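Aim 2 progress update. The chain analyzed this quarter is reproduced below.
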Amino acid sequence: MGTLTKRVLVALVAIPILLFLTFWGITLPFKLVTLVALILALLEYLQLAYEDKIKPQRTEGIISLIIILLPFVYKPFFDWSAETSILAVLFVLNLSFLWSQRTVKRMIVTVSVTFLGVAYFAFFGGYFFRLHEMSNGGWLLLWLYISTWAYDTGGYFAGGWWGKHKLAPEVSPKKSWEGCLGGFVLSVAGLYLLWQFAPAYSRIFNLLDVVILAALLSFFGQIGDLVESIMKRSLSAKDSGSFFPGHGGVFDRIDSLLFNAPVLYFYLVIFKHIQV
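Predicted structure tokens:
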């Protein structure tokens, strides 16, 4: 079975499930699945570090990620500030050396690599929850999904067919400027169709918003993809994992979404005056 066939089959199964959870009136399942996805992505990152002869704190990393994200999952019972979360995480990561078998000589590297992963997935991933809590949150997340997926799809095919000018050959050899243009065009088309045919969007966005957001989400989504590529190459890896056949790991699937979620959130707050 070819890679493209696997990608299509996985998408046909995963996307309807994701959309169902996104729009379901009961919000807890979406929050739990999102939390699990971020934990899996963190584990993939930490596994890459482990395979590159760094011994990250996997258990402590998971605990730390949960500490930061619990207020998003169930705020009535778990409600603490970002400063409190960071302080608790640093205590967990540093004090864990008192009972671990790791050498103290590598403590600063171990804590730094683990904390980077925790902070990355917690603070970027937190905006999935923030968008979901907004008015019309399901529709806003669909806007995020469509723009990001359309850019990825347009970039994949345009880059494969016409890609000649490399975007960042040392970081991601297959990425091309032609792919970026194809991704942007398909992102504009996808958002325009949503804006035209879904009444929820006509109350929030205008045509200029469609173009601006397509540009912003294309740009920052590509940056998110390149940042993940830098992480993987610095850890001597090609893919973050194989959780999704034909797609790679969970981190591979959410790298662009992680950067795009805060961009969309702040656009809505600053320019559309939408609050949680």
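The two ends are 45 Å apart (CA to CA). Residues 3-271 form one domain. These observations will guide the mutagenesis experiments scheduled for the next reporting period.
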